[in-house]
Amino acid sequence: MGSGDDTGDPVSYKALAAGTPVMTSDGVELGRTERAVENVKEQIFDGIVVRAGSELLWVDAPEVARIYERRVELTVDAATDATAVGPYEPGAPEFSANVRAGRIGRFFGGGWKKR
User: Fold this and answer.
1) Which of 46, 50, 69, 113 is such that its CA lies 20 to 30 A from the CA of 14?
2) The model scores a pTM over 0.90
3) 11, 72 Cβ separation under 8 angstroms
4) Domains plus CATH for the chain?
């Protein structure tokens, strides 16, 4: 695999774009990347959150074989992905800035919203 077959060049998980197709080892599309997750404390790649239809799935780092510019390849095939890939359940709540909260809203803690 590589740039000869439309996957693009290998990239770091830090450069992985949202919406990149995630393929099982036998070529079946599992879904599209939502984001890569890093263990910040240990500075290592932890896994990928994948959107499959309306649900979010968690792919742990050992199940990720390669990350390319235009595709992520997994180590598991479509038959075993049900046991290796599970629903995404974040360990801690995730927050993002609420840009619609005004100055008073931010003063009272409304500047953040839970994802």
Assistant:
1) 113
2) no
3) no
4) 3-114 (2.30.30.240)
Task: Quote the tokens at residue 47.
Answer: 């896994």
Q: Are the CB atoms for 34 and 13 separated by under 8 Å?
A: no
b (16+ CB within 10 A) / e for 63-94: bbeebbeebbbbebeeeebeeebeebeeeeee
pLDDT tops 50 at residue 2: no
Which segment, 15-29, 72-86, 88-102, is predicted with the most confidence on average? 15-29
Tokens at 29, concatenated: 């599309």
**Residue burial 36-45, b: 16+ Cβ < 10 Å; e: rest:** bbeeeeeeeb
The CA-based dihedral angle spanning residues 9, 43, 46, 51, taken in that order and rounded to the nearest 10 degrees? -60
